[in-house]
UniProtKB/TrEMBL annotation:
UniProt record similarity statement: Belongs to the short-chain dehydrogenases/reductases (SDR) family.
GO molecular function: oxidoreductase activity, acting on the CH-OH group of donors, NAD or NADP as acceptor
Protein name, entry field: SDR family oxidoreductase
Region of interest (Disordered), residue spans: 245-273
Natural source organism: Conchiformibius kuhniae
Assigned keywords, A-Z: Oxidoreductase
Residue stretches of biased makeup (Pro residues): 250-262
Gene3D superfamilies in the cross-refs: NAD(P)-binding Rossmann-like Domain
Pfam family, one: adh_short
Length: 285
């Protein structure tokens, strides 16, 4: 039985495909870019099979799943679905963001993930065995400026995963959400900044971020836990990343009131007369 990994043409997905094949599992990799998937197949051989499909296209996804039956026996049933394909687009504040970008993120990270899960789940429930591993993000848990729809889509992934657990109660089907923080060496920021590699690279400069292999190793570890054990959610950050204080916006204080106007013929202010105690202490000096 196979591991179906979406977004296997790059980043985490490609690293997971490598790691699972290395560990002896048959892997089916899904993505849009067939050239990248074929290049990976060159390295991984027959233990890696390809499904070329756009996750946002339900008809293409159904056709891809239907074509599993043409693959060798070991690839026909999905024992583990790793919903990894996903993206962020832009970092603009909500009031300036491109709405088309928002729609693409929602269609991919939410609708595509939910649809594929819905299509794969029944055979897992029928077998009373299977595993859905969803790639969320720390962006689901810690809002940041410009995170708007991306963070919200990952909050969906988190809550969807936990709700799946509730629906699958009494079955042997496991569900986990993995929520990574800053992770370099993938196309994620390059895609987010629409090919601006200088801006993307700057995010990972002079710091030790997570790697795609760290995530692949973690997902393999999850899969290999005993059948009675379910990790609900797993949040991972590089040591170099932590939490910041919540910003507080303060309005500048009003300027002090101007001194009262002094009349030109007003008497000069007289020095205050000293008290008896002050005069006595002057005398003792
Ligand atoms: N890197 C990070 O710092 C980080 C942190 C937290 C969470 N994550 C999450 O981890 C997952 C993987 O990220 P990554 O860093 O590996 O990103 P990546 O290198 O950009 O890879 C994203 C993968 O998703 C696939 N994909 C995108 N849209 C698709 C669509 N419509 N249909 C099918 N496949 C699609 C891409 O393949 P094609 O372009 O070939 O279709 C690619 O293989 C994402 O869900 C991301 O949100 C990443």
């Amino acid at each position: 039985m196979a591991i179906l990994i979406t977004g296997a043409s790059a980043g985490f997905g490609a690293a997971m495909a490598r790691r699972f094949v290395q560990a002896g599992y048959p892997v089916v990799g899904m993505a849009r870019r067939g050239d990248k998937l074929h290049a990976l197949k060159e390295q991984l051989g027959d233990m890696f099979q390809i499904l070329e499909a756009d996750l946002t296209d339900k008809i293409a996804v159904d056709a891809a799943l239907g074509s599993l039956h043409n693959l060798p026996e070991a690839f026909r049933q999905i024992d583990c679905l790793v919903n990894n394909a996903g993206l962020a687009l832009g970092l603009d504040p909500a009031q300036e963001a491109d709405f088309d970008d928002w729609e693409t993120v929602i269609q991919t990270n939410i609708v595509g993930l939910a649809y594929l899960t819905r299509q794969v789940l029944p055979q897992m429930v029928a077998r009373n065995k299977g595993y859905i591993i969803n790639l969320g993000s720390i962006a689901a848990n810690y809002p940041y400026p410009g995170g708007n729809v991306y963070g919200a889509s990952k909050a969906f992934v988190r809550q969807f995963s936990l709700n799946l657990r509730a629906d699958l109660h009494g079955t042997g089907v496991r569900v986990s959400v993995v929520e990574p923080g800053l992770c370099g060496g993938t196309e994620f920021s390059y895609v987010r900044f629409k090919g601006d590699s200088e801006r993307a690279d700057a995010l990972y400069r002079h710091t030790d971020s997570l790697s795609a292999d760290d995530i692949a190793e973690t997902v393999l570890w999850l899969y290999q836990r005993p059948a009675h054990m379910n990790v609900n959610s797993l949040e991972i950050m590089p040591v170099s990343q932590s939490f910041g204080a919540l910003p507080v916006h303060r309005t500048p204080p009003p300027p002090p009131p101007p001194p009262p106007p002094v009349a030109a013929d007003a008497p000069a202010p007289q020095p205050k007369e000293k008290t008896l105690l002050e005069r006595l202490s002057d005398w003792l000096k």
